[in-house]
Amino acid sequence: MSSNSENEKSVESNLPLETINNLLSTGNWVYEKSAEHLKQYALSVEQYNVLLLLKKLNGESANLSTIQNSMTSKMSNTTRLVEKLRLKGLLTREQSLENRRKVEIRITDKGLLLFAQMESAQMKTEKEIVSKLTKRDLVTLNKLLNKLRS
Q1: Of residues 57, 51, 122, the one with CA closest to residue 91
Q2: Which domain holds residue 67?
Q3: Per-10-residue mean pLDDT for the chain, 150 residues long?
Q4: N or C: which terminus of the chain has fewer CB atoms within 10 Å of its end residue's CB?
Q5: CATH number of the domain within which 50 lies
Q6: What distance in Å separates the CA atoms of residue 73 and residue 71, rounded to the nearest whole number?
Q7: Which bin fits 55, alpha (ψ -120 to 50), beta or left (φ > 0)?
Q8: pTM (two decimals)
Q9: Element holding 63 (H helix, E strand)
Q10: If DSSP codes are grouped into helix, strand and coil, which group holds residue 44?
């Protein structure tokens, strides 16, 4: 028969694994909820993130490197994402006249219109995903997640 201190050590030693599995499961759950919502706009989570970055730039251009660095998944194929969005007319991709290696990527009016159309539904979905957490919980969670990644 094991003692309480052995049980505590066992639970304590499994805590990092339990935490990692919990983070992975929660991340997947959030991704699935987001993907399900974005499907009605014919966007993937990654495509939405590219458009969101470009929208935040207020008409300024971004390059592939800037977009890649802002992606939640560093494994995203940024070139392919940008091309799919270009084909949908949601962004433009132009080579710089001064430097042919530099590509300037901007959101289009059609992309901005799509954001305007989906804004309230997007906010509702985001609130639903975190609905079981208080504002204080969210602040604490964000601090802890940032601390974990730092």
Answers
A1: 51
A2: 4-149
A3: 58 84 96 96 94 93 89 81 96 84 91 94 96 97 96
A4: N
A5: 1.10.10.10
A6: 5
A7: alpha
A8: 0.83
A9: none
A10: coil
